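Methods — Computational structure assignment.
A single polypeptide chain was analysed. Its primary sequence is given first, followed by the predicted tertiary structure written as structure tokens.
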Amino acid sequence: MKTRVLILHAPGTNRDREAAVACALAGGEPEIVHLNQLLAGERRLLDYGFLVLPGGFSYGDDLGAGTLWSLVLKERLGEDLHRFAADGRPVLGICNGFQALVKTGLLPGQKPQLLPGEPMRRTSTLTRNRSAHFECRWVHLRPEAGSVCLFTRGIEGLLYVPVAHGEGNYQVADPPLLATLRACGQVALTYVNADGQPAEYPENPNGSAGNVAGICNPAGNVMGLMPHPEDHVFPHQHPRWSRGERDGLGLALFANGVRGA
């Protein structure tokens, strides 16, 4: 039986179909579900094995990237979301979805505060790009060998995927936290150059601390990343495919999510 994948659509998200195509190619059974369907009880989160929060501009990012989406998730769906993650089911947040997961407190998730009414001290955030403008370009990502992340497990070589965001700069409230995340294997993906060496702008398009492109929770089943792996799941999507460059597909992340459900 195929893994049922919930692609969660919120007002303003716009990468739903691409995420669904990636999950289908990975062997899953995706369904695009509007947030209001969950709130109305027409769909139930816990009936699915894999949750994807796709990219876009939820609620127009009127109060900051992913902020309103995170409030709805925390206050209206927090109990089910907490249980979904605690059960070990895969959760993948891409771009705006990553921003929402960070702002719910599910990521980095060392001390998750998800249940309605609980106080939350956010330990990290995604803020404005250091360049102070929207970044749209292709980047190289290195899966970190020591990571506990389910999604990057077994991936060799670099991923090559696009970014498209204005607020992708990952920063931590306390500098020691970044070292802690690395030590715990929670840094899943880092920006590097084409040779796999530490990135500088524009290879790191937003100025993220430690070149962090993606992080996971301590259990490794929840991951968020700013780049868009769903936009490079076919070889012909590579910007230089006609010149014979076909490597770096993002499909492996979705395949790991489907297998891990």
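Note: The longest helix spans residues 67-86.
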